[in-house]
# Entry
Amino acid sequence: MPRKAARPTASKDTQTAILDAAEELIQTHGSNGISYATISERVGIRKASIHHHFPTKDKLVEELVRRYARDFLTNVDLIVGSRRKAPAKLRAYIQLFESTLEAAPGRRLCLCGMLGAERENLSPQAATLLKRFYRDNEHRLGQILEAGRKEGTLEFAGDPRTVGMSLFSFLEGAMIVARADRGSRQFRQLSDGVMGLLAG
Amino acid sequence: MPRKAARPTASKDTQTAILDAAEELIQTHGSNGISYATISERVGIRKASIHHHFPTKDKLVEELVRRYARDFLTNVDLIVGSRRKAPAKLRAYIQLFESTLEAAPGRRLCLCGMLGAERENLSPQAATLLKRFYRDNEHRLGQILEAGRKEGTLEFAGDPRTVGMSLFSFLEGAMIVARADRGSRQFRQLSDGVMGLLAG
DNA sequence: GTCTATAGCGCGATAGAC
DNA sequence: GTCTATCGCGCTATAGAC
# Structure
């Protein structure tokens, strides 16, 4: 029985370190704003070693979106499945974005908001994953909104799914606009106001 | 009296052609997604000729933001100063964004929404111009919203300027999200819904 | 699995002829 | 004002030693 782990496990940490560094760098500078050199400096390995784990930049970005979407939606599902009322769920959901903007170092955007701006330069696979992330979020927001209106804690006109799509678009846009000015303070001010519009 | 124009006038058209091409390319691919070579192909001149008009890429981007902000805000001021009621003004304002998304070729983002995502790679001057564009738009939206509430055609809770900032953020975000999916149709669906939330 | 070294190309920018 | 030519550098990606 091997003491720790024998074969393919040692690389797992390096892969994760590469993804972590790439994620933060792309959330800040965009995928067109960084290079293998940028990542390698951050991780402390050579460019060629990154190619060993992720043969092309496109594959790296695709894996990044997959991981980000999986982790993010896991958190969203925890919120959706919790026993709180709709307004509290909405606030918790919005907090996911706010904490991203506050994450050190600097002001990070949602990975998929950033990549949405760069969409025309992405691989077709990455573009598909991106669209799926948007739809998954819009769907879950629609669920929260619909339940809130039914239980009487939220008040708004129109289709919940459409309002959910609008709320999601607002959050992605607010991260970009707030980063250029007063940061997470501005983001919180705006999202509190929007919560007010939906709660009546 | 010279028949047409003697000295510094012939270049004006080339400068404009460069700015036009750069604008469309950056709205689509981002400033990190294009190069002097990309622009030169589109305009039909050589890279070196672009450097004659805009010595560095930073200066080109700065001039682009200046021109875009000037033209866009001129259109906004025409809307603000018109005799229509607030809901019609709001619709006209939103139409400015929708027509950008519809502009051929392809789906263009707001230049300043795109550059907002790339903000951390911009020159300090460009970043300042960007922030000013955001604030100018938010200010004018606040005016429209406040007037609408006073005249009784709009109904919403909270500070009009804050709601204006939120609406602006929504529009920037909706362009990005809609481009990844159903385009201007989706954008119109969402913005119509938001208009409904503000009109009661 | 990580390294050095390098291929092959595109980048922003400049020099200098016309 | 536009061109050709080129510099110096950074990029993605690969080959091959260890």
In short: The longest helix of chain B spans residues 124-151. DSSP finds nine helices and no strands in chain B. Chain B has a mean pLDDT of 95. The CA atoms of residues 91 and 195 of chain B lie 8 Å apart.
